[in-house]
Amino acid sequence: MADDSAPTPPAVLRLTTGRGCGLAIGRYPRFRYDASGGGGTGSVPHGSAGPPGPRPVRFDPAALAIPDLSWRTTRVLGVPIPPGVRIAIEPLELAGQLDTATGAMELRFRARFHCSLFGRYRPGALQVDTLLSTGSVSGRRHRDAGMPVGPDGHAVLAGVAEVPASGDGVLDAFLGLPDDALAVLRCQIVLHPPA
Questions:
Q1: How far is CA 74 from CA 90, 114, 116, 159, 175, in A?
Q2: Is residue 6 one of the residues assigned to a domain?
Q3: For the whole model, what pTM was predicted?
Q4: Range of the domain at 73
C-alpha cells in the first residue's frame, strides 16, 4: 500500500540549447552564437504535483555544458570570429522559477567568462550575473525579449547584465568595461515527471 505521507520526489527538468542564439557586449554588434549540444538537467521540487503554477527550479552548475565561443560557434556580421580567440563559460549558478501554467520562466545565471587569445593572453575572467527571462529585458544599452515555454518545450531566454571591469587594462579598454551585455538563448525545456 502506498504511503500518502511520503514526500513527492522531484521532477527532472531537461534544458537543451540550440542554434540561433545571440550575445552582445558594450558597443559591439551582436554575435550570432550556435549553442547546439549544450544544456543540463535541473530538479523541480514536488514534481508536477498540485495545480499548474510557479515551481522552483535549480540546476547543478557543475553538470551544465555550455559550448565555448570560438570560430566554430560564433559569428559577427556573418563572419566567424578569428581562430585563436576563445571564450570558455564557467557556470556558477542557474536557478529560479518555471510557471507550468503560462510557460513563463526566470533563472538567475552567474558565470565566469574566460577569454584567451592563441592560448597565451589570458586576462582575468569576466563576471556575469543576470536574470534570464522569457519576458522583456532591458539595460542602458541593450534590450530584447524572450518567449515562454511552448507546448513543444521550445523557448527563448533573454538577459541583460552590467559586466564590471575585469581588472585587465587591455581587455577593459577593448570592451569598454564596465558596460551592458546581452544574452539571447534559444532552447528546449522539457519537464519529466518523477520516476
A1: 17, 15, 15, 18, 17
A2: no
A3: 0.90
A4: 11-190
